[in-house]
């Protein structure tokens, strides 16, 4: 049951459309228009996702190597 809850949490995190803009980026995006604003938001999300994925991989490897079986 715990594993199913973890999988559902991961799916929920990636299925929700996230808005990753600070106030300055939001004002810039509003001036650019709809298309470039979506591109700016996607770029911010990709830049934020990279270090989080690296941390998740390192955490999983640490957990896998140090668990008591």
TrEMBL record:
Membrane-spanning segments: 44-63
Signal peptide boundaries: 1-20
Provide the alphabetized UniProt keywords. Answer: Membrane, Signal, Transmembrane, Transmembrane helix
**What protein does this entry describe?**
Uncharacterized protein
Native source species? Chitinophaga pinensis (strain ATCC 43595 / DSM 2588 / LMG 13176 / NBRC 15968 / NCIMB 11800 / UQM 2034)
